[in-house]
Amino acid sequence: MTASPPDLLPVHEDAHLLVLDKPAGLLCVPGRGEDKQDCLSARAQRQWPDALIVHRLDMGTSGLVVMARGLEMQRALSAAFADREVHKRYEAVVDGVMPQHDDWSLIDAPLMADWPRRPLQKIDPAGKPSLTRWRALSSVSPPGGPAATHVLLEPLTGRSHQLRVHLLSIGHPILGDALYGDAALQARAPRLLLHARELGFVHPATREPLHFERAAGFATEWLSDL
Length: 226
Hints:
This is Dual-specificity RNA pseudouridine synthase RluA. GO terms for molecular function: 23S rRNA pseudouridine(746) synthase activity; RNA binding; tRNA pseudouridine(32) synthase activity. Belongs to the pseudouridine synthase RluA family. The protein is an alpha+beta fold and about 230 residues long. The protein has one domain (about 10-225): Pseudouridine synthase (2-Layer Sandwich), CATH 3.30.2350.10. The mean pLDDT is about 90. The protein contains five helices and twelve strands. About 20% of the residues lie in helices and about 30% in strands. The longest helix is centred in the middle third of the chain and has 12 residues, at about 70-80. β3 and β4 (about 60-70) form a beta hairpin.
């Protein structure tokens, strides 16, 4: 018999919502097939039967996820995401050296499904407007090896694979990306080095401003090994 996964330790828990720190490699919702039924929502519902998904992270992405407790709260939180009332910040380690400066830079590139290669996405003028802000924190250029940059990211829209495709489009794919990276890029990290670091929003029930932050351990650890 397969052992049950350990209980989730919430970053935040109240009568209306949960904030959880999803590990890399775990789906947010069930996939197709018996081997893809273990996921964040299923684990949460074992502990909080009223827990409902509001937004998702890719399987390879770690970090903060908010879940609603009940349909009314799910509708309210979903509306906050749709209306861009939720602050989201990610961190990643990407290929190459990105310039460091105090101001944020903007990637403005519309995205749409790459239908022959689904679930991949692509940049296309006919796609949906997609905006990502980025700011480089530090870069390393080891002797004889490829350079890498630790970067903060703020998606101003919420398209599928937005951060991965936008960074690829400016020549800085995320290390460990098994969907958009070649074999050499994948070999440079044991996982996708992308983490949902911050979430901020107004609590729909209490109207209290909430802000949560969980830094990724991989950036410091990975860059120090170079």
